[in-house]
Design goal:
The protein has ten helices and 17 strands. The chain has about 375 residues and is α+β, with helices and mostly antiparallel strands. It has a single domain (about 5-380), classed as Chorismate synthase, AroC fold (4-Layer Sandwich). The strands form six sheets. Strands 8-7-9-15-10 form a five-stranded antiparallel sheet. Strands 1-2-6-3 form a four-stranded antiparallel sheet, with helices on one face. The protein has a two-stranded antiparallel sheet with strand order 4-5. The radius of gyration is 22 Å and the shape is globular. The structure holds ligand EPS. Ligand EPS binds next to helix 5.
């Protein structure tokens, strides 16, 4: 059976966005309510701009399902753009520093940045959320949970107990518009975003994502392309405005001795029936990944998002037509999209985990995937005495 893959199509002000998912097994009940809830969460978060008042992103699954069950054929999901006006949208000649405007205009030999920005826009992330949230229907069958949350905005840091139950973290996150599990920090973050709006400026931040309940051995050390850390990092770094990604201790591994970086290995017989097979760790500084494979500890990954590059005050730029120095163009935009981007991070990570899961436990149908999963856990449990 084919590898699980997806691609997206669509412009910010085109007719629609499309996600096309291939290699998804048959027999999975699609949780459409979950998909629409994730799409709506992506539209929200404090600091969003006017576009989100126009759109109401809901998934129209065009192909690949019959009576809510997947049938193994490619799944096309359509999200309608209510703000469909690409042919009337004005040209943009003064590139915004930090956006794809300048590099894209030179690359596609045009002085109109709109040719590039229509596709480079973060509107495309709605299609990624649709694709990723589809895989949650599969991951849920195996008790695998994924949640991302905001841990910093403009240097205001949240205090989050990483070892808490992931559903508890997600519940706390959902209680405020900063999508931050620390309520006190969320209040300060929201105030900072409000101030940035008054200053006609924008803010970035840090998103943390965790995966729990997955088995060991997803990814592989045998081929560089299969390493799960590399794959997760690429998936997350490819999200608009993400500039850095770290796993576990991340950059701090460089300044600590090995004894303070690696996680001692224990065995707890009472946990033998869990996906961890009983191997417990006193710490999780590796962020759940060793040798490009999951080690059944929670995966912990953080991503840094730069401030949105469209500033209401503009920035010094150059007119691509006249070459005269001018302020950059203003396109309607967000003041801070870190909360919204956390939803995108969560769902692209879910997709990569589902992809790695189906590589290890492949099958045309959910029945076969489940059989492969059960038989692997049985064989792994039988190792040693
Ligand atoms: C976005 C849609 C866009 C922007 C924003 C995110 O819509 P519009 O350009 O019509 O306002 O609000 O995109 C950007 C931040 C960007 O740099 O392009 C969305 O759906 O998330």
């Amino acid at each position: 059976m084919a590898n699980l893959t997806y691609s997206t199509a669509g412009e910010s002000h085109g007719q629609a966005l499309i996600a096309l998912i291939e290699g998804f097994p048959a027999g999975v009940q699609v949780n459409l309510a979950l998909m629409n809830a994730e799409l709506s969460r992506r539209q929200g978060g404090y600091g969003r701009g006017g576009r989100m008042k126009i759109e109401k992103d809901t998934a129209n699954i065009l192909t690949g399902i019959r009576n809510r069950l997947t049938i193994g054929s490619p799944i096309a999901i359509q999200l309608e753009n209510k703000d469909f006006r690409i042919d009337q949208a004005p040209p943009v000649n003064r590139p915004r520093p930090g956006h794809a405007d300048l590099a894209g205009s030179i690359k596609w030999l045009t002085t109109d940045c709109r040719e590039t920005l229509e596709r480079a826009s973060a509107r495309e992330t709605a299609a990624r959320v649709a694709a990723g949230s589809l895989t949650r229907s599969l991951l849920n069958e195996f008790g695998i949970t994924v949640a991302a949350y905001v841990v910093a905005i403009a240097g205001i840091k949240a205090d989050v107990d990483q070892s808490a139950d992931l559903s508890k973290i997600a519940k706390e996150r959902d209680a405020n518009e900063a999508y931050c599990p620390d309520d006190l920090a969320a209040v300060k973050m929201i105030a900072a975003i409000r101030k940035a709006k008054e200053d006609k400026d924008t803010l970035g931040g840090i998103i943390e994502v965790q995966v729990q309940g997955h088995p060991p051995g997803l990814g592989s050390c045998m081929r560089w392309q299969d390493k799960i850390d590399g794959r997760l990092m690429q998936a997350v770094a490819s999200i608009q405005a993400i500039k850095a990604v770290e796993i576990g201790m991340g950059f701090q591994v460089a300044s600590n001795p090995g004894s303070k970086v690696h996680d001692p290995i224990d065995f707890d017989r009472s946990k033998r029936d869990t996906p961890s097979l009983g191997f417990t760790r006193r710490s999780n500084r590796a962020g759940g990944i060793e040798g490009g494979m999951t080690n059944a500890q929670p995966i912990i990954l953080r991503a840094a998002m730069k401030p949105i590059s469209t500033l209401l005050q503009g920035m010094d730029s150059t007119n691509l037509e006249s070459k005269a120095p001018e302020r950059s163009d203003y396109e309607r935009s967000d003041v801070c999209a870190v909360p919204a981007a956390s939803v995108v991070v969560e769902n692209v990570v879910a997709f990569e985990i589902a992809r790695a899961f189906l590589e290890k436990f492949s099958g045309d149908t959910l029945t076969e995937v489940r059989a492969a999963y059960d038989s692997f856990l049985k064989a792994a449990r039988a190792l040693g005495s």
